[in-house]
Amino acid sequence: MLELELEQQTNIKFLVKLGKSGNKIREMLVQLYGDNAMKKTALYTWVKRFSEGRESVTDEERSGWPATSRTEENIAKIHQIVRENRRLTVKSIEEQVNIDREAVRKILTEDLDMRKVCAKMVPKELTKEQKQRRVTIFQDLLER
Hints:
Strand content: 5-15%
Oligomer: single chain
Distance between the termini: 65 Å
Strand order of the largest sheet: 1-2
CATH topology of the largest domain: Arc Repressor Mutant, subunit A
Number of strands: 2
Order of helices and strands: HHHHHHEEH
Low-confidence stretches: none
CATH architecture of the largest domain: Orthogonal Bundle
Number of helices: 7
Number of domains: 2
Helix content: 55-70%
Largest sheet: 2 strands, antiparallel
Structural class: mainly alpha
């Protein structure tokens, strides 16, 4: 996908240097790439950049949180933290691991398949052993 974007950005640069308008460039890209053509807003952003003299067709590095917060290492850290204390808040886990709160929430719900129950993070599905243990406990309670 990245190669396709670079190819389109190179074509936009070429067409801007030929003096083509944004609308004409859009028509040509749609004709050439069909549904895979760059979206209008991105296209006009690149047209503006190249019109202002930009030469590079690649994006610059952006500041902010890295897009790789959901690494295997962070997932393992959060899993260990939750196993040790299920009553922690997402905010406290965020502070311990030092990654974005939304990334922590996604790791808990999507990667570790957990949900919040009375301020505890628990697995969504019980294992067979856990289910059998519950049955045994309830049968014992019924007998009493």
